[in-house]
Amino acid sequence: MSKELVIRLAGRGQYQVPAGGEDLLKELNRIDNEIVARLAQARGDLQELLEQMESRVLAAGERIDDLVSSDLILPPEDLTLAEAAELFHGEGIIPR
C-alpha cells in the first residue's frame, strides 16, 4: 500500500492509516477470513474478532474529523450473526 488509507469504524468515525500500513491490511484480512470461516461453520462467536479489527485500526490510525471517502468500512462490534452473514461471504469485506 503506497497511499494513506481511510478506514471507517461503523459508529466510531474514520481513521487515517499512514502509507505503508500493509501489515495492518494483512492482519485485518486474516481476521476477516476467520470471520468468514466461522460463519461457514455456523459459529456465532464473532465479537472478539470484530473487536480485534477495531483495536488494530485504533492503534494504527489517527481519527479524522473531516468526512472523506472511506477505503474500507468495518462493521460495529455488536453485529448480529444475520448481519455478519450478509457482509462476510466469499472473500469477506477485504478482498485480497
Topology (SSEs and partners):
Layout: E1 5-9, E2 13-17, H1 22-40, H2 47-60, E3 62-64, E4 72-74, H3 81-87
Parallel strand pairs: 1-4
Antiparallel strand pairs: 1-2, 2-3
Helix pairs in contact: 1-2
The proportion of residues forming helix, as a percent range, comes to 40-55%
Mean pLDDT: 87
The number of distinct helices, counting runs of at least 4 residues, comes to 3
Helix/strand structural class:
alpha+beta
Major sheet summary line = 4 strands, mixed
Radius of gyration: 13 Å
Let me know the number of strands. Answer: 4
Unreliable runs:
none
Shape: globular
Looking across the biggest beta sheet, what order are the strands in? 3-2-1-4
Q: Which features characterize this protein?
A:
four-stranded mixed sheet; about 100 residues; 3 helices; about 40% helix; alpha+beta; 4 strands
Detailed description of the structure:
With 96 residues, the protein is α+β, with helices and mostly antiparallel strands. The protein has one domain (5-87). 42% of the residues lie in helices and 17% in strands. The protein has 3 helices and 4 strands; from the N terminus they run E-E-H-H-E-E-H. The protein has helices at 22-40, 47-60, 81-87, and strands at residues 5-9, 13-17, 62-64, 72-74. The chain has a 4-stranded mixed beta sheet, covered by helices on one side. Strand 1 and strand 2 (13-17) form a beta hairpin. Helix 1 (22-40) packs antiparallel against helix 2 (47-60). The longest helix has 19 residues, at 22-40. The protein is globular, with a radius of gyration of 13 Å. The two termini are 12 Å apart.
